[in-house]
Design brief:
Elements (H helix, E strand, L loop, with lengths): L8 E6 L2 E7 L2 E5 L5 E4 L4 E4 L8 E8 L5 E9 L8 E7 L5 E7 L6 E6 L2 E2 L5 E3 L6 E4 L5 E8 L4 E8 L4 E7 L5 E7 L20 H40 L26
Antiparallel strand pairs: 1-2, 1-6, 2-3, 4-5, 6-7, 8-9, 9-13, 10-11, 10-14, 12-13, 14-15, 16-17
């Protein structure tokens, strides 16, 4: 108020309950024992020893000298404790959806908002809930950095969580009996719409296979060569030993009246 000269009377109400009735600057009704004070000289309203019970709508009504209402002002008094830490929980549902809940520890009148990878969540990503609810259900394909922000008129805090899909895949195929299937299924338990196994790949299909074949052939040839060398030297050694044994004289025992004969063998044939 800039001037109070024309104000003959005013009422102060809290949620439609009259708490002050002042006429010509004299109080006729005061239910608060000076807890609520209004100073017409400068338009100041003061509440002493403020507590949560004082929240609500306050209305100032002014009247002229004839008792007619001349004006009215209303303001709302709100108490809010600051928002503290935020708890973010997620769980997979039976069809691969993900339920995510966001809650604040303390704080009055919290307001929620969600972002995914730095942008607002869209309806295409939400199966249930909206960007202003504290519980949402994400569709099966959604993944990324999810952030829940909680705020009120005092402060704001946020919590981030990296979410991944629940392991479901979307299948879309027609079975041999003509049945068309389109649904989300758990990838590890999928027995539908399985693609036929590929046939054997020829060695010459890729450069890598050709090089592996060449290396294998070289290895086999090397092994065969080593085996051949081993067999050759073993055969040569056996032949040498046989020749040495053949050169040793052999004797035969006969009766006393017999003739002792000695047989000699060498590389050249000769008779003795």
């Amino acid at each position: 108020m800039d001037s109070t000269s024309e104000i003959s009377r005013y009422h102060l109400l809290k949620d439609s309950l009259k708490i002050l009735d002042v006429k010509h600057n004299k109080s006729f009704h005061d239910t608060t024992e000076n807890k609520f004070l209004f100073f017409p000289s400068n338009g100041t309203f003061r509440i002493s020893s403020l507590n949560r019970n004082e929240h609500g709508n306050y209305t100032l009504q002014t009247f002229d000298s004839d008792g007619r209402k001349s004006d009215e002002w209303t303001f709302k008094l709100i108490f809010q404790a600051p928002v503290s830490s935020v708890l973010l929980l997620s769980e997979c549902l039976s069809q691969g959806e993900m339920r995510v809940s966001c809650s604040s520890q303390g704080g009055d009148s919290p307001q929620y908002s969600w972002t995914l990878d730095g942008r607002t969540l869209t309806d295409a990503e939400l199966l249930s809930g909206n960007n202003k609810s504290n519980n949402i259900i994400l569709k099966q394909h959604v993944s990324g950095h999810l952030v829940c922000s909680v705020r009120n008129h005092v402060n704001s805090v946020s919590k981030e969580q990296r979410i991944c899909t629940c392991g479901f895949i979307f299948i879309n195929c027609t079975l041999s009996d003509g049945t068309h299937i389109t649904k989300w299924v758990l990838a590890t338990k999928n027995t539908l719409c399985i693609k036929p196994t590929m046939g054997p790949i020829k060695v010459s299909d890729t450069p890598l296979d050709n090089s592996l074949l060449l290396c294998g052939l070289r290895a086999v040839m090397g092994i065969l060569l080593l085996i051949g060398i081993f067999i050759y030297f073993a055969w040569k050694k056996k032949k040498t030993l046989k020749a040495e044994v053949s050169a040793v004289p052999q004797t035969m025992d006969y009766p006393d009246n017999s003739v002792l004969m000695v047989e000699m063998r060498s590389s050249t044939s000769c008779n003795v």
